[in-house]
Amino acid sequence: MHVAQMASNTTMNISSPFDLPQTDKNTVFQHVKPAYGTASRLTMYKKSIQSLPQPPALWQAFQKACDKGASSKQLGNIIKDDPVLSAAILRIANAPGLGVRITITDVVRAIAHLGTSMVRTIVSRHSFSGAFASSGKVYNVTKLWKHGMAVSAFAEIIAEEVPGCDPALANTLGLFHDIGKMSLNLFTQYQQPATLDLEEGHLVFEHKRFACTHIDLGVLLAKHWELPEPIIQGITYHHHPAYAEPNDIPESIRAEVFAVYLADMLAIHLGFDTGETGIAQPHPSFTSMLPNTSLQALVNTTRVQQEVKRIEQVEF
Q1: Is residue 72 part of a domain?
Q2: What is the DSSP letter of 29?
């Protein structure tokens, strides 16, 4: 990763649809250098990941129902027999900042109030809370779930501005794009000493520590969880917009990967990061894929601002 400039409190001139006002929390990078996992280390990690329990039946049923556009009632019927999960959804739905005037006591109403995107994150975190401790030594898992929630919500909004983009697929990919970071927490016994070099970037930093990146482990974990092939492909390519051109990404998921990449930029910019706050603009060749708006304009939309307020209220 090559650093373009350290962030300041000043607002830069908007010259690209991907420009964002700088803050004292963000570093803007020129581009990301790819780093690929070594075969021997990935073979070892694959064996370890395959020893993890399969996702619970409830999670699998809920994901499939979401992908099919199930109603709040149908989703509620899947959840209602899990008292711990139901209680978590009700608690979050009744958070003071989410505008509830009359206490919600029904899971179906809670799902309708929170929206599928947010509930999908809550269900996923609940389902995997045993496998991934919140106090991860590499990445904080609670921050990862919240980041995924934000990227998922923003990707669905951005998808409407990207020609040919499927909002539902972008939403799902947004939730799962960084799951490999959770896997890195499982392999701390193998990590090597390394220092983050801003000239190289975070992917290279991960590679120096683990001989692979969260992209490699994300693909392994997604296959273990039997996620749909478009999601596996999306995880594979979700950093490509930083250093590659559109044609380097399979056409079938190109628009969705681009929407998730922009959503990731927004999430980091708005404070929903995973521990690193670097933002790398997409390759200029992606400009034509965002023809009618800009990230700056999207930041100021009512829908994005509403999602920010909603996500800020979520306490896992």
Answers
A1: no
A2: E
Q: Does a structural domain hold residue 231?
A: yes
DSSP state of 226: T
Q: Can you read off the two tokens belonging to residue 170?
A: 């972008």
**Can you say whether residue 275 is alpha, beta or left, with left for phi > 0 and alpha for psi between -120 and 50 degrees?**
left
One DSSP character per residue, 174-224 reads HHHTTHHHHHHGGGGGG-------TTT-HHHHHHHHHSS-HHHHHHHHHHH
- Residue 83 is assigned to a structural domain of this protein: no
Quick one: tokens of 188?
């701390």
- Domain total of the chain: 1
- Domain of residue 271 covers 3-52+131-313
Task: Please determine, for residue 301, whether its predicted confidence score (pLDDT) is greater than 90.
Answer: yes
What average pLDDT does the segment 216-237 reach?
94
CATH number at residue 164: 1.10.3210
> Could you tell me what percent of the chain has a pLDDT over 90?
54
In the three-class reduction of DSSP (H, G, I as helix; E, B as strand; rest coil), residue 245 is classed as coil
Asked if 138 and 181 touch (Cβ cutoff 8 Å), the reply is yes
> Which of the four pLDDT bands, split at 50, 70 and 90, describes residue 11?
very low
pLDDT score of 7? 33
| Number of residues that make up the chain | 316
Domain assignment present for 16: yes
